[in-house]
């Protein structure tokens, strides 16, 4: 079994990613860390606990509460006015809502902070743990700053974030990188084996409402919740950011989990030098992928996927959930 740690800002698509990982027989989820992102840390932690409890996995899967603010991006006046994020101004654009629509959690997070648990777990490991961060990279970057030796202990990082041709929060940036650009830059510069699953891939794998209804028909708990979430996301996306096929909606974070399970779910994977803009200007949080090797002095530091196998992704969700 492959050992993994999830780092989530739950988050509707995070909930689907969690269920995919937690229900995959090939994965051993050592723990789930929450982070500030789609909403403030109280919401993302509560939502993470709700999903674990909904699946009845509270005795097996510990949840660790992580960082409540980005590393530095809220310090400059006016740079991050909407963090902790409260959602879009127009309620019709609301992809997440404050809470995942599940009963309130009766379980609590572990007493240890996510960052210290991550460091401890990685340092004691045999270098056989894959990190799957699908929110802002604050926890991972903080851990790397506190204990840089974890970089040699991480087997691999498969993260959801950034975009080559696609953006979704400012005219230049994807949400996870935009919330904490410095954290994304620290992770890119860490020397770890990194696979980036950006918006270009997740949009290519957008799921149809019809396929999600097949999950409901399976009658499983995960299938029902996924169908509800896809329907909710689809209502918001149709209004806020319609996909080329308007009957589909991306469930970004689940694609990162499926990548760990089967690499073939990604298409057009390029090895390249990647960076994140931290200027505080119009490109703040923008991801840069030097696919044409304009800067010959830079060595590749990531693999990035520009596409995805939509059919395989949908098939995997239908099988696992
Ligand atoms: C990412 O931002 C969040 O809203 C989603 O959960 C996903 O991780 C997509 O840009
Ligand atoms: Ca997320």
From TrEMBL:
Keywords: Glycosidase, Hydrolase. Gene3D superfamilies: Ribonucleoside hydrolase-like. The keyword Hydrolase applies. It comes from the Bacteria. Residues 4-314 form the Inosine/uridine-preferring nucleoside hydrolase domain. Pfam families: IU_nuc_hydro. GO terms for molecular function: hydrolase activity. The keyword RNA-binding does not apply. InterPro entries: I/U_nuclsd_hydro_CS, Inosine/uridine_hydrolase_dom, IUNH, Ribo_hydro-like. This is Nucleoside hydrolase. It comes from Ruthenibacterium intestinale. The lineage of its organism: Bacteria, Bacillati, Bacillota, Clostridia, Eubacteriales.
